[in-house]
Input
Amino acid sequence: MFIDRMSRWLVAFGLGLALVLPTAVTLAQDQREITLIAQLAFEQIAQREAEAAAAEEARHQATLEEQSRLKAAYQQYLGGARRTAQNLIAQKRRDATQQQVDTLRARAQVVIDEVQDATKQRVPNELDPIFEELEKAISITADELVKADARLVKLRQELGRGNDLTWVDQAAILYALAPDKEQAEIVANNVKFREQLSEDEANAIDDTNRRRLVLGLNPLAIDMKLVECSRDHSNDMIKHNFFAHDSPVAGKTTPWDRAKNFGTKASGENIAAGYKNGNAVVKGWWYSPGHLKNMMGKGHKRIAVGQENKHYTQMFGR
Output
């Protein structure tokens, strides 16, 4: 009976082994397959990441190359525009005698010095015709500049649509209007700050300098500390709901206080609100006697315009 019982146990044990062994083999095989699949997935992910990184690097390199091409084209365009503008303006100055120019500038200065709020119609009635005559005598427009040089037309095509060249044309004209090397360098240095300015800030500065140069006044150098100061005041006027040169903000009462806070000095300030762009705000100041005298002040050496939304602050320094 014992033998029969043992036989049954062995049979049962043997059958049990037969049932367990295939299961262990299957699990091991499954584990190897899972490991293999995971390895393949990891390799595919790594490959895709490498391909994506390579594609991103290629795009980055292409962007750098395009930026380099555009920069070189811009530099070539600016150089060509300067030379063309200088030639055109030099020709105009030869055609107009210096005595004629000096007489017109002297008449313009009389209006600027004498005009008051009560007589502000003298600006459109007297100053504007004098200024227009001066522009015709010694300056040029952007259209005249481009039409005079076929190479500029070609470079415009290379740069493509969407690349604004208006400011380049304006910079070239300002450079050509400068009567000597020192003033030309001021205009050239101002171009370096353009990327740090909004389009309206830069245009307002360019427009102010253009008017000064036509009237025989020195161009003003951009002071980025004054720019930050101007932006701060424009922002304060919006934030604290006031419109004035005297600020209610502690430590910022006067333009001189504000300039000192930014590590510089000021010699004058204009403010404006509600204008659609930088050129429009300069035109608004031009027709306001106090602002006009500020913009055309003979003692100024530095300039800044700070824009916040439609609020503008223009500051000057000696």
The chain has a mean pLDDT of 88.
